[in-house]
Amino acid sequence: MQKRTDLSSLGWGPRRGRAYLSAAPSRGLGPASATLSHQTPLGSSGLHASCLDLWREKNDQLVRQAKVAQDSRQFLRGQQLAQDVLEGFRGLLHSLQGLPAAVPVLPLELTVTCNFITMKASLAQGFTENQAQDIQQSLERVLETQKQLGPRLECGLRGLWDSVLHYSSVLLELLPALHHLAGLQAALWLSTDCLGDLTLLLQTLNGNQSEASEDLLHLLKTWSPPAEESDAPLTLQDARGLRDVLLTASAYRQGLQELITGSLPKALSSLQEAASGLCPRPVLVQVYTVLGTCLRKMGNPQRALLYLVAALKGGSPWGPPLLEASRLYQQLGNTAAELESLELLVDALSVTHSPEAPQLLIEVELLLPQPNPASPLHCGTQSQAKYLLASRCLQIGRAEDAAEHYLDLLALLLDDSEPKFSPPPSRPGPCMPEVFLEAAAALIQAGRAQDALTVCEELLSRMSSLLPKMPQLWEDARKGTKESPHCLSWVSATYLLQGRAWVQLGAQKEAISEFSRCLELLFQATPKDKEQGPASSCEQGCMSDVALQQLRVAALISRGLQWVASDQDTKALQDFLLSVQMCPGNRDASFHLLQTLRRMDRRDEAIALWWSLEAQAKLPQENAAWSLPLFLETYLSWIRSPDRETLLEEFQTSLLEPCDL
Amino acid sequence: VQAVFRFPGRVWHLELSALRGVLYVLCAQKGVYCVSLDQASRSVSQDDGDDSDKNDEDSEDGEPPCPVIPVDPDACILPDATLCAFVVLDDVLVTLAQGPAQWKVQLFRCHRPGEDARPPGQIGEVELSTSSPLAGSLGEPTAPRFLPVLCCVSPPGCSGLCGRMPGSGGFTLERALFGLLFGVDASLLESPVILCGLPDGQLCCVVLKTLVTSRLAPGDPKALVKILHHLEEPVVSIGALRTESSGENVEDTHPDCLVALGRHGRVLAVKASWDEAGDPVPELQEDRLPRAGAACGGGSRVYHSTPSDLCVVDLARGGAPQDPVQPDRGSGSLPSLLCPASVSVCSVVTLSVLSEVPEGGTRLLALSARGRLMTCSLDLSSEAPCPARATVVNTGQKIKELLSGIGAGSPLLGGLSPPRLRPVALPLTPMRAPDAASCPIPEVGRDVRRVLGPARVSSLPSGRLSVSLRCLSPPGVSLGCATLQWLLAENSALDVVRARLLSSVRGVAPDGTDLHLVVREVTVTHLCAAGPMQAVEIQVESSSLASLCQAHHAVIGRLQRMVVEQAAQSSSPPDLRVQYLHQIQVNHETLLREVQTLRDRLSTDDEAGSRTTAERLLQVYQQLRSPSLLLV
């Protein structure tokens, strides 16, 4: 190790000593020269030292001012103060950089740069390219003192760091400030996912002792920034503090990444590392939640639960752990707890958060990736949670609850009389027409047919402007082979549900008329494109081909059943036959047809149909590949005979055995 | 003028929330300020009349001194140096911020000033994609060259939030068009939609209700942002018009045509139309108008200013021939060609429709680049062929007269005064589209800066409006200098030219490019049948082709006008080949169109194609310059 005395032999005095400015002509431009000439006449003795003192005092004053801004109770006032401090640092940096770089001033200059970057990044809540340029400029200034500028510039920031740290053995004075700057560079690279550069930088900072190690966490743990001297200029955050933040953030990022790629044991260890480090409470809640996700996926629901409970302890309830808990309970089959978690989630998300004043330093949160919808930390908004709750209730057969939740959701989405509004469930979720239809389905399921009709009418009225002009133009549409008009599939689905509601109300005539309207629309609308979109591609205003086909079958069967109920077997037969032709593999359609044939005593046809059904049953089932919109799934369950299979067996005895005799 | 606010930075945009009695103001690179108007009227006192008022008196012929209220830094409700535009909807503030790589739409819930010390809570955010780099290369945040445009569109009958936005820059679109443009979700939710016109030409929309996101996650741009169109030039204005008479459909009389205007005059109009099958389809039409400055819409017409003129385009009529075979289609369609009519008012930086008369007349409120507020009464007879004939009445009315004319209402904003720019509060309550009046500040600001330097020309083509013939060679003044004085009449640089007897000036065009005007005496032989004659040559030089063409065009236009006027007044018309001058102008217009086409092509061509295009462009450029201008 070289000592400071080595430096004095180079002619550089102690920090506040010599007249370094006289060594180089002033560039004469910028605020620096203005400040100088303003303060004291050039050339007087003691000027430069006092100037350095002045700048240093300015830095310290700004740091103290930042603390005041930080502690300000008034958010806006604090923000203004912080902006002023930032501008102060910018001005000071201009002053310092207006002069040629000199080693005795560089520690201060680098410290001011670090404070400026810290301030800027914390105010902007993230790093930008500008901060990289600030760092680059500082490094170039360091190299300038060593007359080592030029070809190295091509290597970019990494090359610059190599050169600077190479010279740092003779620039021991700069070492603390350089490590601080390196910490900020590490934060920048971490937040932009430049992990290769980050690893190399840490290896160089560690003196390449642990050459073999490419483990980021290990490198961060072994990195030991030199302690700053007690008389050093004030900093907003020192290098060691920054190192701790980096360690937690890296461990968390790494764990999250490993969780997403499925390396669960690795993820677990990284996340536990993050949880054990310096971790502010909000981050700890996140880490615990992700740990819960990880353990659930590893098949340890009980341990996962412990972490989630820890995440929920203390403080106001936070969305992600509640959502994760609901997933966990769903996996455990604990429906009551699952729904309760979702209800709590809805409550937790009803609170609008005012921004808290950001800490004026680099925090762990600053270095974390923003949660995207795929992240386990994404929990959406209140209305999205409400939708989740409502649709889960509908799926698991809690119709009354589902109906209530859907009505709440619609109120939340549509009522903006109070200045509070809520987004619809986001993609890839259902689109608005589907939400309406699900609500209507839930209401029918809950026996509230009249309410379902109201919801349907509301939907139709809101969609009316998107429909083709009525009525004469419809005639043209019927003749032509035009593509399915906008929203037509939603309208027909609405008619279908209305029909069902009338069935429930015992109004057969109205029901048949709604089913007929539905079919009329569906048969004039040929599928939009050959390509098959996802089940809820709402952007086109249409459903997938499979969904449309199922919708047609559902409408045909529904109307057929109404004909049956009014003893019009011939008409019923027509509808059932058509539905079987449309979708030969549909067992419901075939079953209804079979029953009708039997009732009409058309024995031979019934037997032929039974045989084809039998043959189909032996084929591997493949209809699980596509998923239908929830309202349609619900609807199909209504027209399915619960004892279909037993009845089919009955047929065997009643129809076939006499034939064998 | 009731009150003058002094903001700590250049004012880019402002909106009045009449309901809350507050004014929201966006200051360049500072953030959004919220000023209570009640407070302003209370704190007005004579003490405030400081030296700046004296300036006012100097420049505005004894305007009454207006109290100047410095805006407190605490009034800044949203400190953010990157904000470029905003709209207010009740208590929701939608902002457009310039990120390092992308534009960002953010949603805030704000509080009344003084009511709550808490900052506006952010309730949503989404990034818009953009093709061009945004931020400057150096550390300082740089202001964008052109500001983006934000506006809020609501469906009819939208209650609550969107229903309560008087005074904000929003409009309502009829249901069919709304549904077509913004989709089924926006229609079902009856949600307002935020339209963004970006400097790179993108016109995109975000359904407001979908923008509300959870605190931790910004919205997914793919799901939330829809690009409606790409105008390929900075979007300067977005508005809506009613093009069909509301006869058949009484309940929906909302605008049925969305119009976006580009910086260089490209105009996009979108209407809902129905195809043969009766399905609603959007009908898009693009056309080119003269380069646009400010714009506003009223009825079915777009009024827009160019550097040298004020034009009217009627989208309902526009010269579209009625098709006897398809009468249904004819009435609903947009005109195939947009034909702007000149109103002959120049240098208007902002516009607003004051009132409309059923017979086709309109009163416009216009603010000129020199800070003059005017009302223009246009008599656009509905029987007039395209282009409509316009008469100008009342232009140049002083602010004071205007004020007395429309009465004292609650203070609103206008803006004016070189040598120093100060926002001036004016009662503008009767205005139908207050948002349009909020553009003047930035526009004036820009021009004011350019005018400041001596011998600089703010906008060269200063006018076809009030040109009167002058004696070209007063004693002691060279023909060149006299010509230049004539050309720059009404321009602020005139005094300098006159004082120093200049025969050439260097100026800055409104888009920031250099412009050089040189006038020298020459002898010509081919123009006049009587033989060689003395003449002056006006040479226009600029590094920007667009500026060159515009200046060139303006000079020719002016010459032509002078010749025609002279012919009308004098019994012996000058022995000039007027036809020749006219031909020059026609040629130039053709060439100008070709230049625009070539430039458009240049941006889409591959490498080989673009070389050919560039060569042709160069040829046209030379052609444009070749016929030297002559003036006797």
What features would you describe in this structure?
The complex is a heterodimer of chains A (661) and B (632). By secondary structure, chain A is mostly helical. Chain A has helices at residues 4-8, 30-39, 47-71, 75-97, 106-124, 129-145, 156-167, 175-191, 195-205, 216-222, 239-261, 264-276, 281-297, 301-312, 319-332, 335-348, 382-395, 399-414, 432-445, 449-463, 472-479, 488-505, 508-524, 545-565, 569-582, 587-599, 603-618, 630-638, 644-660. The termini of chain A are far apart. The longest helix of chain B is centred in the last third of the chain and has 27 residues, at 578-604. Chain B is built from 15 helices and 32 strands. A five-stranded mixed beta sheet of chain B has the order 12-11-13-14-15. In chain B, strands 2-3-4-6 form a four-stranded antiparallel beta sheet. Chain B has 632 residues and is an alpha+beta fold. Helix content of chain B is 25%, strand content 30%. The model of chain B is unreliable at 44-63, 133-141, 160-168, 318-332, 382-417, 419-474 and 627-632 (pLDDT under 50). Chain B is globular and about 75 Å long.
Top keywords for this entry?
heterodimer; A: 661 residues; mainly alpha; 65% helix; disordered N terminus; B: 632 residues; alpha+beta; five-stranded mixed sheet; four-stranded antiparallel sheet; 15 helices; 25% helix; disordered C terminus; FA complementation group G (chain A); repeat (chain A)
Q: What secondary-structure arrangement, pairings included, does this model have?
A:
The complex is a heterodimer of chains A (661) and B (632).
Chain A: H1 4-8, H2 30-39, H3 47-71, H4 75-97, H5 106-124, H6 129-145, H7 156-167, H8 175-191, H9 195-205, H10 216-222, H11 239-261, H12 264-276, H13 281-297, H14 301-312, H15 319-332, H16 335-348, H17 382-395, H18 399-414, H19 432-445, H20 449-463, H21 472-479, H22 488-505, H23 508-524, H24 545-565, H25 569-582, H26 587-599, H27 603-618, H28 630-638, H29 644-660
Helix pairs in contact in A: 2-4, 3-4, 4-5, 5-6, 5-8, 6-7, 7-9, 8-9, 8-11, 10-11, 11-12, 12-13, 13-14, 13-15, 14-15, 15-16, 16-17, 17-18, 18-19, 19-20, 19-22, 19-28, 20-22, 22-23, 22-24, 23-24, 24-25, 24-26, 25-26, 26-27, 27-29
Chain B: E1 4-6, E2 11-17, E3 22-27, E4 31-36, H1 37-43, H2 51-59, E5 68-70, E6 76-79, E7 83-89, E8 92-98, E9 103-109, E10 121-128, E11 149-154, H3 160-163, E12 170-172, H4 175-189, E13 193-197, E14 202-207, H5 208-211, H6 221-224, E15 225-230, E16 235-241, E17 257-262, E18 266-274, E19 280-288, E20 295-298, E21 301-305, E22 310-314, H7 327-332, E23 341-342, E24 348-356, E25 361-368, E26 373-379, H8 399-406, E27 411-413, E28 425-427, H9 434-437, H10 440-452, H11 479-487, H12 494-500, E29 504-508, E30 514-524, E31 533-542, H13 545-569, H14 578-604, H15 607-625, E32 629-631
Parallel strand pairs in B: 1-5, 11-12
Antiparallel strand pairs in B: 2-3, 3-4, 4-6, 7-8, 8-9, 9-10, 11-13, 13-14, 14-15, 16-17, 17-18, 18-19, 20-21, 21-22, 22-23, 24-25, 25-26, 27-28, 29-30, 30-31, 31-32
